[in-house]
Structures are given as C-alpha cells and as structure tokens.
Amino acid sequence: MRGVDEVQQVENSGLNWTSYLVRELASGWKATTWHLGIRKYQTIGSNDQSSATYLSIDRSPSSSNPFPFPFPLPTPLSPVANSQYAPRPPSTDTMAEKTQSRSVDHAEYGAYRPDIPLIEAAAAMSEEENKLPRKELFRRYWPAATYSMLLSLALVMEGMDVGLINNFFGHPAYQKKFGYLVSTNPDKYRVSASWQAAIGNGNNLGSIIGLLLNGWLQSRFGSRRVYMGAMAAMGATIFMLFFAVNVQMLFAANILCGIPWGIFQTLTTAYAAEICPAAMRGYLTAWVSMCWGAGSFLATVILRASLGLKGDLGWKIPYAMQWVWIIPLFIVGFAAPESPWYLIRLGRIDDAEKSLRRLARKNHYTDQSMAETLALMKHTNEMEKIESAGATYKDCFHGTNLRRTVIICMAWVIQILNGQSICSYAVIFLQTAGMDVNQSFNFNMGIQSVNIFSTAVAIVLMGTIGRRIFFFFGSSFIGFLMLIIGILGSVPASKTSVGLGVAVIMILTNMTFKVSLGPTTYTIVGETSSSRVRAQTIVLGRAVYVVGQIVIQQLNPRMLNEAPAGGWGWGAKSGFLYFGLCCVWAVWIFFFLPETKNRTFAELDYLFQKRVPARQFSTHPVDLFELTGGEGTKKLDDEHLEKNVSEIREERHI
C-alpha cells in the first residue's frame, strides 16, 4: 500500500518530488490534473494544529479507483515530522485494502475516514432492532427507558401548572382573591380577560427565556447538570406563586416559573431521543406527551378537590403540590447517565462508551458491538459536520438544517394552533355555555381524564403507524370536530344543551389530540433535528410554539368570554377559526412532512442532505458512505488553499 512509509522511501532514495510524480504518471496512474497545496489538520478534541504540503491528483473518468484523499508531502522536503497527520491514499490492489485504508482511528487523524465494516454492522444491527418485538426491545434497553421516563416526569409538574393557570380563572377562591366584583351580580367575582391573557403569557414569556438558555446550556454543560439546576430554580420560584398577593405579583411569578419550565420542555425531548436506539425513540418521546397529559389531569383533580377549601387555601394548596416533585426529580437527574451523543460531540469517546453501557442491560454490549455503535455515532457526527461545524443557533438556518428547522417549527405550530387549546379553558368555556361551577369542573375532569389512556394508545401504535399518518389524521379529524363545535354555537338552542354537546366534542377533541398530534410532535421533533444542533433546533421550534401559545392566550380568553368581561362573545363559534387552520395544516403535512419512522439519525442525515422529497422518505434507498468520500471529505477540511506548482517550488526553493 502507498502511504507514509512510501513517503519515507522516496526521501531515502534521493528522488525529488517532481521526478517521483513523472515516474508515477509514466507507470499508468492516468491522472488528468494535479496540484500542490497546503492543508491544516486538527486532531479531534485538541486545539493543536499541524500542516503538511500535499499532492492532490484528480483521476480521469475512466479510472476505476478515484483518489479521495490528499497525498502528503514532507514540509520541508525532508523526512516527515508529523506523519501521524498524514492520511493514507487508497490502495490500487484490492477492495479489502481500500477498506482497510479508510479504517483509521478517529482521534489520531485530523481528516476523518469512516470505518466502513463497523458502521455497516451497526446499521445492520439497528435495522434488526427495528424488527424486534416491543417487549424484547424494552428488555434490552430498560435502563434507557427508565431514565428517560423518570426525567420526563418534570413535565407532569409543568402540565399541572399550565392546567392550574387556565382553569383557576373559573375557581371561586381564586376569582375572589385576584378578580373584581361583577356589577350585575354582587356575589360573583371575575378575572378580566386582559389579566387572564397576561397571567398566561407570563408563563410563556418565561418559557422563551428558558428555551433560549437551554439551547446554550445543554450543548455546553450536558443534560444532567442543566436538569438539576433548573429543578433547583423551580423549587425557589414556586414560593412567589404561593405567596402572591395581587395579579401583578402573580404575573411576575409566572414569568420566573416559566424559565425552568422552558428548559424542561426541550431538554427532556432531546434527552429521550438521544439515549435510546432508533426503534425506541417513538415510544419514549411519546411518553413526554403522556407526562403533559397526566399533569393536566392531576390539575383538574386537585382543583375539583380544592373547591371545598375555605379562603386562600383553595388556590394556595394546588400551587404547593408542585413542591412534592422537586427533591425526587433532582435525585433522578443526579443519578442519570449523560447523553452519549453529547459526549461524542465533545470527543469523549470513553465516557460515551460508559454511558451507553449504563443505558442497556448488563453485558448487552460486547466489545465488537460497542465498537460498531461508537463508529456509527462518530460517523453520524462527521456527516453532520459537513453541514454545520459547530453547535450554534446560526447553524440551524444553514444548508439542510434550514429544512429541518422549518419542519420542527411547523410541527410545533400545528400542535398549538389546531383548536385543542380550548380544552385548557374548558371550565370557562363550559360556564359560558351555561354550566354551573361544580358541573364545569366535573366535566373538565372528564375531558382531561382521557389524556393518559389516549397517549398510551398512541405509544402502542407508534411502532406500527408512521408519523405522517398520525399527524395527517389528527389535524383532519380535529378540524372536523372544530367545525361541529362552530355549528353548535350557531344553532339556536338552550344553553344547557349546547354546553353538553360542546363538552362531549371537547372530550373527543382531547382524545384525538392525545392519540395523534400530542405525542407525535415530540417524536418528530426528536427525530428530525440534526444531532449536532438538536438542542438549538428543538429550542427554536419550541420558541415558535410558545409564540403561538402567546397568540392563543390573547385570542381564547377574548373569544370565549362575554363582552362584560372584555371578551368578544364568540363562544362555541370559535370552532370555525380552528377548522380553517386545520385545513391548512392537513395540506402542509401531506406535501412537506417527511416520514422518520424506523430511520437512524445517519439515514435521516443522508435523506436530508440528498434533498429527498418528504413523501419519499420511507422508501428512498440510503448509502451512508456517499457523503463522507470525495467531495464530502473536502468539506470536512478546515482549510484548503490551492497553489500552483511554480509558487510551491519558489517558496520551497526546489
């Protein structure tokens, strides 16, 4: 094989490099063009750089053995001082030798070359895992499932608070403390529509801050430390909610509480996507949605139980219940392993191996299978370097990352702007439709009770039904239900009958959402983003979601409240607006949402970089090595400065 040893042989033979080139050309290399240049090499995980003069030969089209890597020359013309940075050219003898020439330790060489046999074996293993029964899959990777599910419980706490915020507006004790006396009814208190919107948006403003912070914090400090820090901050900010004395203090408290909530919203999804194999991603990211649903249901139960409490305890006890989660979840964050993808991006291969072993059952990985898994992860990381050399928000809008970012943002937009959000205002909505306080809270429990069951159904179906089907069905059917709600609000009837009809449709809406759009959004977001900028992309998408939530927090209270409370009095007619939006979402999903089911991150990188149409993602063939040879390798170089031969000879005094 030609390589560094041959460079040394040329030096020892006394040949100059011009003579050597002429001899090789005469011996049948069939080179059409050639040039000399200087390229810098940097060892992964190190700040040290070395440079070497190189000879690059472009083969003719008839050549069966293209020359994908630069051939190093000594600098100056003497034995090579830094030969460990000099990539070996491919063999001209056998395919086996060519494969061997590309099997180079990642940390030793600056120019990355994939270890083809290991990567192919890992890809094959991932394909086999996709065919495993669900029980066997969880038996192999039960630690990953356990850690992901436990850390995601932070969203139960967050779901509780979101449920409390919007439904407190119909709670008598809360209304008396933070509302005003209705002039037409001396025994009735009400929180104005403007303050309802402001308090809800305080949470959203804080969430945006937390989301943006998490995009930087998670890539810098990893998931574990950020999770524990946010949990400690959460425990402190709950004090402001508990001791609030007016709506202004409540508004400020919701902003501060929103910061750690924003961190949890994206951190848990990214962590779930990164610690489990491709076949499990759908289940564990869908579990994130179940946690939200469980939190919403717990909020309705706590609110219903607090109706009988006297004075301020009626609204203080529900807030205090959030402290129950802080210490147990902090301990879980401390015990959990770090994301192996985060460690791979830092070049901490040994730590990534330890993390992977902790995330699978004991003795699951052999030395060979571990080497294969790490090789595929490193290869995926290098493929993504072609598009983005660093993890910054700016990279989310470069190359194929822009398409990924748009898909993720749209997935979040569809999740919030489909009409299901009115279920969060069920108490106010149903009271406006004619129900009394106790009845409205009872029906609200029924509406939220379907959360856990419906998400469990989604998790069971996630392994067999594609993401596109879930999303298209969810948007279309929720749109149909919104049309029915709008019609009910337009047909003259007694308020009681309209209220019952709307309550039933809201139960169906919530059930449909939790089977489709709710859990599938987290799966799409976790799978679509590039691993190098996953935290940043998810943060941007979630920030768009929060902006949509701010819009909803402004619209829904005004649409659902009567004019005396500062509303527009639309009531159930609000369904027409969401029906129109759902029609738009269904069209976008059909043409632009790709199918990510059973695709590894490396395969998805390939499909995005090849700009495969969304409707062909599930069937398009994949070549994992196409993008890391030839042109792909050139993109990985930090600096490629071409010079003609005369300039090099003049500089080196040849």
Automatic annotation (TrEMBL):
<feature type="transmembrane region" description="Helical">
    <location>
        <begin position="575"/>
        <end position="593"/>
    </location>
</feature>
<dbReference type="InterPro" id="IPR050360">
    <property type="entry name" value="MFS_Sugar_Transporters"/>
</dbReference>
<dbReference type="GO" id="GO:0005351">
    <property type="term" value="F:carbohydrate:proton symporter activity"/>
</dbReference>
<dbReference type="InterPro" id="IPR020846">
    <property type="entry name" value="MFS_dom"/>
</dbReference>
<feature type="transmembrane region" description="Helical">
    <location>
        <begin position="193"/>
        <end position="214"/>
    </location>
</feature>
<feature type="transmembrane region" description="Helical">
    <location>
        <begin position="497"/>
        <end position="517"/>
    </location>
</feature>
<feature type="transmembrane region" description="Helical">
    <location>
        <begin position="323"/>
        <end position="344"/>
    </location>
</feature>
<dbReference type="GO" id="GO:0016020">
    <property type="term" value="C:membrane"/>
</dbReference>
<keyword id="KW-0813">Transport</keyword>
<feature type="domain" description="Major facilitator superfamily (MFS) profile">
    <location>
        <begin position="147"/>
        <end position="597"/>
    </location>
</feature>
<keyword id="KW-1133">Transmembrane helix</keyword>
<feature type="region of interest" description="Disordered">
    <location>
        <begin position="80"/>
        <end position="103"/>
    </location>
</feature>
<protein>
    <submittedName>
        <fullName>Alpha glucoside transporter</fullName>
    </submittedName>
</protein>
<feature type="compositionally biased region" description="Polar residues">
    <location>
        <begin position="80"/>
        <end position="94"/>
    </location>
</feature>
<feature type="transmembrane region" description="Helical">
    <location>
        <begin position="441"/>
        <end position="462"/>
    </location>
</feature>
<dbReference type="InterPro" id="IPR005829">
    <property type="entry name" value="Sugar_transporter_CS"/>
</dbReference>
<feature type="transmembrane region" description="Helical">
    <location>
        <begin position="538"/>
        <end position="555"/>
    </location>
</feature>
<dbReference type="Pfam" id="PF00083">
    <property type="entry name" value="Sugar_tr"/>
</dbReference>
<feature type="transmembrane region" description="Helical">
    <location>
        <begin position="469"/>
        <end position="491"/>
    </location>
</feature>
<keyword id="KW-0812">Transmembrane</keyword>
<feature type="transmembrane region" description="Helical">
    <location>
        <begin position="141"/>
        <end position="160"/>
    </location>
</feature>
<dbReference type="InterPro" id="IPR005828">
    <property type="entry name" value="MFS_sugar_transport-like"/>
</dbReference>
<comment type="similarity">
    <text>Belongs to the major facilitator superfamily. Sugar transporter (TC 2.A.1.1) family.</text>
</comment>
<dbReference type="InterPro" id="IPR036259">
    <property type="entry name" value="MFS_trans_sf"/>
</dbReference>
<feature type="transmembrane region" description="Helical">
    <location>
        <begin position="251"/>
        <end position="272"/>
    </location>
</feature>
<feature type="transmembrane region" description="Helical">
    <location>
        <begin position="406"/>
        <end position="429"/>
    </location>
</feature>
<feature type="transmembrane region" description="Helical">
    <location>
        <begin position="284"/>
        <end position="303"/>
    </location>
</feature>
<dbReference type="InterPro" id="IPR003663">
    <property type="entry name" value="Sugar/inositol_transpt"/>
</dbReference>
<keyword id="KW-0472">Membrane</keyword>
<feature type="transmembrane region" description="Helical">
    <location>
        <begin position="226"/>
        <end position="245"/>
    </location>
</feature>
